[in-house]
Amino acid sequence: MFIDANGKTWYKGNLHTHTTVTDGKKTPEEVIALYRENGYDFLSLTDHWVHSETRMTEDGMLLLGGCEYNINGADILAGVFHIVSIGEKEPANLDRSLANGTYTAQDIVDAVHAVGGIAILAHPAWSLETCEQILPLSGFDGVEIYNSVSGLPRNCRPYSGEVIDQLAARGKVFTSMCADDSHFYQNEACLSYIYVQADALTEDAILDAIRAGRVMATQGPRFAVTVEEIEGSENRRVRYTCDPVSQIVFYTGSVWHDGRSISGEGITKAEFILRPFDRFVRAEFIGADGKIGFDTPILY
Fold first, then answer.
1. Contact 292, 146 (CB under 8 A)
2. With left for phi above 0 and alpha for psi between -120 and 50, is residue 76 left, alpha or beta?
3. Torsion angle, alpha carbons of 296, 104, 211, 27, to 10
4. Can you give the pTM of this predicted structure?
5. Residues ≥6 apart with Cβ < 8 Å to 171
6. Residue 130 contacts by C-beta under 8 Å, 6 or more apart in sequence?
7. How many Å apart are CA 251 and CA 167, to the nearest integer?
8. Beta strands 193-197; 215-218: pairing state
């Protein structure tokens, strides 16, 4: 948890985690202790097709009820979708026996929302999802731009920025999220997380903040973004402030841009002029240690 320059409180959490209840290598108790020891304020145990309950631990950590619904096995042509549900008031009306070939991703999202949960699209790059598969879908409350367990040594596609950029270029934006998706509890644990700006560490406050997009996805660098209209111009100015980093990269919908990044030591601010042909801008903040903060795309 930290308090920003405007006096707003941001809580640290991980919303995608597995335990020995399904295919994780640590027990629920071990997982909770690990994340608490690493300064997390909230956590969700999202085992496959197993609903966990919301509760507060004795030492003040908020456990948000969660579950991961995965459909279509490894059939990438059918659409391998893993959807993380957080905050369900009761288990969603979904039957695991119908996961392959019956349910669509939209069915899962709708079922999660029907019981008061939020739906997060997990690791679209790892799942090899295409724009054509994602664009018709509605209702996602966030998308994982980085999924730690999808990286080396066990996997190879942890970063979904290109998928997010392809969607943004077509006018579709989801709130960027980071998650560990911890299974093996090796190098992926406590690596990628979110901060949520909320008035209290409660289920309703955290879920409402995520729905409103008050989320910062990061592996370390913290940042803030403001957008302003430029008087007498069709362009918009996007201003960034951040923890000291060594590089800020601007991803847009244009194939060429003369201001794609800035590099140096201890960079704490930058701006980008967003023009119609850019379609969108999304910034990444790269620390000297290689850890990255991931912004949500801003449409022109």
1. yes
2. alpha
3. -90
4. 0.96
5. 279, 299
6. none
7. 13
8. antiparallel
Q: Which two tokens stand for residue 199?
A: 């008035």
Say which amino acid occupies 94. Answer: L
Tokens matching residue 279: 């379609």
Do 52 and 67 meet the contact criterion of CB atoms below 8 Å apart? yes
Burial 256-283 (b: 16+ CB within 10 A, else e): ebeeeebeeeebeebebebbeebbbbbb
Rounded to an integer, what distance in angstroms lies between the CA atom of residue 285 and that of residue 269? 10
Residue whose token pair is 């119609």? 276
- What are the beta bridge partners of residue 118? 86
Instruction: Give CA–CA dist 223/218, Å, rounded.
Output: 9
Q: Phi and psi dihedrals of 143, rounded to 5?
A: -140, 140
Distance between CA atoms of 214 and 207, rounded to whole angstroms? Answer: 10
Q: For each of the chain's 300 residues, which pLDDT tens digit applies?
A: 999 999 999 999 999 999 999 999 999 999 999 999 999 999 999 999 999 999 999 999 999 999 999 999 999 999 999 999 999 999 999 999 999 999 999 999 999 999 999 999 999 999 999 999 999 999 999 999 999 999 999 899 999 999 999 999 999 999 999 999 999 998 999 999 999 999 999 999 999 999 999 999 999 999 999 999 999 999 999 999 999 999 999 999 998 878 899 999 999 999 999 999 999 999 999 999 999 999 999 999
Token code pair at residue 271:
């701006």
